[in-house]
Write a structure and sequence with these properties.
The chain has eleven helices and eleven strands. By secondary structure, it is an alpha/beta fold. The chain folds into two domains: 93 residues, Arc Repressor Mutant, subunit A, CATH 1.10.10.10; 221 residues, 3-Layer(aba) Sandwich (D-Maltodextrin-Binding Protein, domain 2). Helix 1 packs across helix 3, helix 2 crosses helix 3 and helix 9 crosses helix 11.
Length: 325
């Protein structure tokens, strides 16, 4: 059978992974000697691989002197490309090895604060009980589902309705105003004096403070002014540093309230407009890994369902609704 000379790819020669590894390591260290030590090869072998790569490409990747080597402009560009290629090879290999050993990869995404303060504690012990499901967890502000994102499960905040998605409600949101104990200066804060406090803002919820006071039937004039942050985590950190008063979900700030690192500025919990959900594409609703995770989260919720109510009671916090989950 004659080779297909119409396809130039049939005769194109590609560099070996060994050559690319030698080049990437030498470029990172700017030293053939150090690259050889990392790769457990001889210095001459690394140098030879790079020289053969340059010969094949017909371009110099390094400037060489008797004292040192440095990347040429072409070498700098090629280094970035080779680094990405090697990372993709590593990812693809790990993925294949996982499937070949009957391990399922469950790809999940969550808002950063929710992930750190609720999801990770909820997943404690999961991998030990389910060794054939490997968790791949990403932190992201959003959007979570698109053609660019390969996600199995997302933990979302909203009204619970997303096109093409099946949802499992976790819990309602109740927000409390918290601050460092020293911020109170021994005096209780009053909502009517809110313009004299620094009210920390969440960028995605510009009207949160208005709604908080409105639910208490408190009408305030003026504008709420304070630093704006992208995440609840940043708001909590700012409150811990004494910047001002942060309005954050009770569940997400429970550790600091229980330890006394933070205190409530006003003993009131305002119900948020939405709730927290575990969501996944309808096509994955019957998959084994999705069912296992749903059962795990449901069990965790059952054992911790009263923690928010008990915490609120111990802190003297009142709710604006009879139903607290």
């Amino acid at each position: 059978m004659q080779p297909d000379t119409s396809n130039p790819l049939s005769f194109r020669k590609y560099p070996s992974t060994t050559a690319m590894q030698c080049f990437e390591t030498a470029a990172r260290h700017l030293s053939f000697t150090n690259a050889a030590l990392e790769l457990h090869m001889t210095q001459s072998a690394v140098s030879k691989q790079v020289a053969q790569l340059e010969e094949m490409l017909n371009i110099s990747l390094f400037y060489r002197t008797s004292q040192r080597i440095s990347l040429t402009p072409a070498g700098k560009d090629y280094y970035i490309d080779v680094l990405n290629i090697l990372k993709n090879i590593e990812t693809a290999t790990i993925k294949l090895m996982s499937h070949s050993s009957n391990v399922e990869v469950l790809k999940m995404v969550s808002h950063p604060t929710f992930c750190a303060r609720w999801l990770i504690p909820a997943l404690q012990g999961f991998s030990q009980v389910n060794p054939l499901i490997r968790l791949d967890i990403k932190e992201q502000v959003g959007p979570f589902f698109s053609e660019e994102h390969d996600i199995d499960i997302a933990f979302l905040y909203g009204e619970g309705t997303w096109s093409g998605m099946e949802t499992f409600k976790l819990f309602d949101e109740y927000c409390v105003a918290v601050c460092h104990p020293d911020y109170l200066q021994g005096q209780p804060l009053t909502p009517q004096q809110s313009d004299s406090y620094v009210l920390l803002q969440l960028s995605s919820r510009p009207s949160a403070w208005y709604e908080y006071f409105k639910q208490q039937l408190i009408s305030l004039d003026g504008t709420f002014v304070g630093p704006r942050f992208d995440t609840f985590h940043a708001c909590i950190s700012a409150a811990l540093s004494g910047y001002g008063v942060a309005l954050v979900p009770l569940r997400l700030v429970a550790p600091e309230l229980q330890s006394g690192q933070l205190v409530t500025a006003w003993n009131y919990a305002a119900k948020g407009r939405g709730s927290y959900y575990m969501s996944f594409p309808l096509s994955l609703g019957s998959s084994h890994k999705t069912k296992v995770m749903q059962a795990w989260i449901a069990s965790y919720l059952e054992t911790s369902s009263h923690s928010q109510i008990e915490l609120a009671g111990s802190l003297g916090i009142t709710f604006n609704s009879v139903s607290h989950e």
